[in-house]
Amino acid sequence: MVKKPLKFKTFALINLGILLLALGTYFFKTPNGFATGGVSGLSIILAEIFPIISPALYMMIINVALLILGVAILGKECGGLTIYCSLVFSFETWILEQICPLSAPLTSYPLLELIYAVLLTGIGSAILFKCKASSGGTDIVALILKKYSSMNVGTALLCTDFFIAAATFIDWSSDGSIGFDAQTGMFTMLGLFAKVFLVDDVIESMDMCKAFTIITSKPEEISAYIMQDIRHGVTTYPAKGAYTGADKTVIVTVCRRSEAIRLRRRVLSIDPHAFIIITKTSEIMGKGFRDINS
Q1: Looking at residue 255, which CATH number applies to its domain?
Q2: Is the pLDDT of residue 101 over 80?
Q3: For every residue of the chain, which 3-state class applies, written as one string?
């Protein structure tokens, strides 16, 4: 089966997700030591322990090594999008280092910077996952763990990120001594858990659709509008009002959020007495929506 070429919209979303990851990592995560997991978090820790090279170069080296390992072990599972995302992510972070070098956090408010770090990287990661891509790194480690253990990808990824985040409780001083940095560690752990919930919420929001149940006496006109203008399928079945005894038709359909307002207005213009039930849903599988095999 020949794969379909990548759509421009998907390609643009992927690059937006990578840019948000790079901005959140460079401007907020790295200066504050918020290693909320992933290769970026591991790179921040390594740069603290061995300040020979920058976090961006550590990130690039680790990503390349993991990509080679992933291709060797996972084969087709480690696809071209992951390679593209991880390399562009590392490159953009390195470019930011050259254009806008930072020697300290942007502000003196670590909680504010943590919020921006979580928002930018969380939304960026969610966009990539929605496009069936990833920034590589610990995603590849999770896939390898899944292949050789009973863990699922989510559990393996959370475990990997948890230990990286927990390492920020240790203060790696430049003189070689090791201390305890509770503030950075607590901020990092807070950021990790916030990011986990944010990624799920953003993905669910991007997938959000509306399910319509319309009880009407004019099913032909409404069904024609849905099928011809909105171009979605319709299911109808007869019904009878228990109170009025009037014969009605129930129309069931689903549409995207951008189409829901148009459909609601049109239904009420056709039948002002229609009874409409609108519910939110993020799991619609079938033609015109999510592939039933995905």
Answers
A1: 3.30.70.120
A2: yes
A3: CCCCCCCHHHHHHHHHHHHHHHHHHHHHHHHHCCCCCHHHHHHHHHHHHCCCCCHHHHHHHHHHHHHHHHHHHHHHHCCHHHHHHHHHHHHHHHHHHHHCCCCCCCCCCHHHHHHHHHHHHHHHHHHHHHCCCCCCCHHHHHHHHHHHCCCCHHHHHHHHHHHHHHHHHEEECCCCCEEECHHHHHHHHHHHHHHHHHHHHHHHHHCCEEEEEEEECCHHHHHHHHHHHHCCCCEEEEEECCCCCCEEEEEEEEEEHHHHHHHHHHHHHHCCCCEEEEEEECCCECCCCECCCC
